[in-house]
Design brief:
By secondary structure, this protein is α/β, with parallel strands linked by helices. The strands form six sheets. Strands 14-15-16-13-12-18-19 form a seven-stranded mixed beta sheet, sandwiched between helices. It has a six-stranded mixed beta sheet with strand order 9-8-7-10-11-21, with helices on both faces. The radius of gyration is 24 Å and the shape is globular. The relative contact order is 0.13. Bound molecules: nicotinamide-adenine-dinucleotide. Nicotinamide-adenine-dinucleotide binds next to helix 7 and helix 8.
């Protein structure tokens, strides 16, 4: 019998309801206890979901390990066919995914839909890549033998994902791992388990063999991940989340020399130079800052504007911020809630600190009373650069604008950070754009655009923003190991 959420998910017409249990070894499985999933737009419980413990985690690893060798031997084209089938099933279930994502993450339906479509594109990309893993064959540098290099799956992988992009992160990791021939254990974020459950159902219905993809939800993340990280059968961890937790996982994996990919925090500088198209910069800054209520690792965190155009930029930006509608994402609004009461409650202190550090409040600044975890879209302005926001990720619908004197100051202020994930520059001058692109110490640079994600693009950061890149042409190789074979070739025929 299928377990479904209690009262919520009857809405997606013709869609699927997410199963609320764990998915281990090809079957939905109860855990000893359950936990509540909260709709952040209402504060109400919308489902009770199985709460995995260490025993469930180790059972998932048993099954991933048992399935690994056979999955790696499945012909690439057959793996690709399964992934294509999953992609088709996903598209059929759009309404269920979009609806569930909005209910448990709070993001407006339009944003859930955009995330859903992008996630489907990523799955398609990995399906296409499956049969295209390459190898090389060459003569050794000194002659005398041959160098053959191929790529083999790294082995069972633990994929730990956050709540802010509850589908995209699972697909971006899981799609690559499955395409490479790895088996997986996905750990969802406690706040958004059901989106992951819908994706697991897609893989199940597409016919992925038992053990190849497993799914765990838990209120005790470290209780689930630590025994896995300490088990030599697990060969890789791919994590998206905060820099602190990423570092902890690397420590846990160090003893077993665990292969690790880390997508961590950011403090995206968004630079507007004096020759920029200001209207374009304003529109892109609004999307880049307020998408997902600012809860995105690539969000504009420091808006750095040349003093010569700062007044015009700020006036237009603030007018647009004041026009943003805030509310339950099931309605046509621009900005949804924060993910939790805790996240909302910390923001009043944040605004107080930012004001104390010299910021002038130009819009918002307060929580919104009533049900749900809403906070007003907020803008603060600083005269000159100010270190208050360097290496300080807001993760909130709070924009900070700094005026600077020219491109060199903009560049050095932007680079003054422990993070190195996403950065943005707006200019009409090609030479300036390339110059910034090369000198910004960030893994990604948006030039005259505030949204960058694409399956073709290598996603990831430098410094404390992480290690490795997801997707792009090479992302699949993060889930493989190179195998080198040295071959003696006797040139005289026997
Ligand atoms: P988080 O690190 O608290 O949680 C992320 C995931 O790690 C969740 O699944 C959580 O349950 C799990 N987790 C938490 N503590 C753990 C532990 N001790 N052991 C194992 N797992 C643990 O982060 P968050 O608050 O959910 O997300 C916000 C952070 O994630 C921000 O810093 C943001 O920048 C970052 N993020 C980065 C990217 C990226 O691609 N670089 C994307 C989205 C979010």
């Amino acid at each position: 019998m299928t377990n479904h959420p209690k009262d919520l998910v009857s809405k997606p017409e013709g869609g699927l309801l997410p199963d609320t249990r764990l998915y281990i070894d090809g079957a939905w499985t109860d855990a000893a206890t359950q936990f509540d999933v909260i709709n952040p737009a209402t504060g109400k419980t919308i489902a009770e979901v199985s709460d995995a413990g260490s025993e469930d985690a180790l059972r998932a690893l048993d099954s991933a390990q048992a399935a690994q060798a056979a999955w790696a031997r499945v012909a690439p084209r057959a793996r690709a066919n399964l992934m294509h089938r999953a992609h088709a099933l996903m598209l059929e279930r759009e309404q269920a995914f979009v609806h569930t994502m909005t209910l448990e993450s709070g993001k407006p339906l339009t944003e859930s839909r955009a995330e859903f479509l992008l996630s489907a594109d990523f799955l398609l990309w990995f399906a296409e890549q499956t049969a295209h893993l390459h190898g090389t064959y060459s003569e050794s540098s000194n002659g005398g033998f041959r160098v053959m290099v191929t790529h083999q799956p790294v082995g069972p992988c633990l994929l730990i994902t956050p709540w802010n992009f509850p589908l995209l992160m699972i697909v971006r990791k899981g799609g690559a791992a499955l395409a490479a021939g790895c088996t997986t254990i996905t750990k969802t974020a406690q706040e958004t388990p059901m989106t992951g459950a819908l994706f697991m159902q897609v893989l199940h219905d597409a016919g992925f063999p038992p053990g190849v993809a497993n799914l765990l939800h838990t209120t005790n993340s470290s209780g689930v991940s630590k025994p896995l990280m300490q088990d030599k059968r697990l060969r890789k961890v791919s994590f998206t989340g905060s820099t602190g937790v990423g570092g902890l996982l690397m420590e846990q994996g160090a003893r077993n020399i665990m292969n690790a990919s880390m997508e961590l925090g950011g403090d995206g500088p968004f630079i507007v130079l004096d020759d920029a198209d200001i209207d374009l910069a304003v529109d892109q800054a609004i999307i880049c800052k307020f998408r997902n209520a600012g809860q995105a690792c690539v969000a504009a965190n420091r808006i750095i504007v040349d003093a010569r155009v700062e007044a015009e930029f700020t006036e237009k930006f603030v007018a647009k911020v004041k026009a943003l509608t805030v509310g339950d994402g099931m309605n046509p609004v621009d900005v949804g809630p924060m993910i939790s009461a805790r996240q909302r409650d910390r923001l009043s202190d944040t605004v107080a600190q930012l004001t104390q550090a010299g910021g002038t409040l130009l819009a918002g600044g307060k929580p919104i009373a009533g049900d749900g975890f809403f906070f007003e879209p907020t803008v603060l302005r600083y005269v000159g650069r100010n270190d208050v926001m360097c290496s300080n990720e807001l993760f909130a619908p709070i924009a900070t604008i700094f005026s600077v004197e020219g491109p060199e100051e903009a560049l050095s202020f932007a680079n003054d950070s422990d993070f190195g994930l996403a950065s943005y520059v707006f200019t009409r001058d090609l030479s300036r754009a390339i110059n910034f692109g090369e000198r910004l110490e960030f893994g990604m640079v948006g030039i005259n655009r505030g949204i960058m994600a694409d399956p073709k693009a290598p996603f990831g950061g430098t410094k404390t923003s992480g290690i490795g890149r997801e997707a792009g042409n090479d992302g699949i190789y993060e889930f493989t190991e190179q195998k080198y074979m040295a071959v003696t070739v006797n040139e005289a025929f026997a």
